[in-house]
Amino acid sequence: MSLELLGRIQQELSVTGSAIYETVLALAERANRKVQVLRLHNQASTVLTQMEQVHGELGREIATLCARRPPFSHESTMPSDQLEQSLVQASLRVQQLKQTLLSVDSLIRELKLETIHQELITLQQDLSLRAAAIERFPISKGSPVIGKSLAALVLPTSVRLVTILRGPILVPPDSNLTVRVNDVLVFIGLQADLAQVITEFTPAPDTRPRSIESVIASSARRP
Predict the structure, then answer these.
(1) Could you tell me if 138 and 181 are in contact, meaning their C-beta atoms sit under 8 angstroms apart?
(2) Do 37 and 144 lie in a common domain?
(3) Are residues 95 and 159 in the same domain?
(4) Structural domain tally of the chain?
(5) What pLDDT was estimated at residue 53?
(6) How many CB atoms sit inside 10 A of residue 187's CB?
(7) Whether pTM exceeds 0.70
């Protein structure tokens, strides 16, 4: 066996080993994020339990106050300043717990966004290896597809409409749905076919002849 062949085998093994290491590392990072999210969920559950305990303790104090009240009397034997102090302490404790809960919620959202971001990168890499991609197409004024139903859209064979972003709503594709201005259509398909879709969805340039007055006015506005 020649030294050149041994060198090639060693190189192939090195590349394969690096790929396996990167895969294991990615899986470990994903598992670590999931563990962190679970821990934060447990922490949030503990905070909610503590808030319930504060409310319960305050309720018991109020019940004790009512029990000490003389019959047919609207006044409490417990000083009002003591009741006010209990309410203030309970309110401060609840506010602290709410701040903790908001911090935990923010951390959970960040971890979930990191996970989604990593998964999208992996998806793009997988698609890129197959000369494919996932693209979003904002529908601007003048687009030739405005007012058309999804059934009327002529798409290349490899292109599929995944979803439509309409304001804050995620709209599932439906053949009777009409395309509107400011819609964002999300497609997946081969890169060459997606480029064709971009061309067909883009508003045509204004090729109408301009009047002398408009040319003079445009020149006058230039510095």
Answers:
(1) no
(2) no
(3) no
(4) 2
(5) 85
(6) 22
(7) no
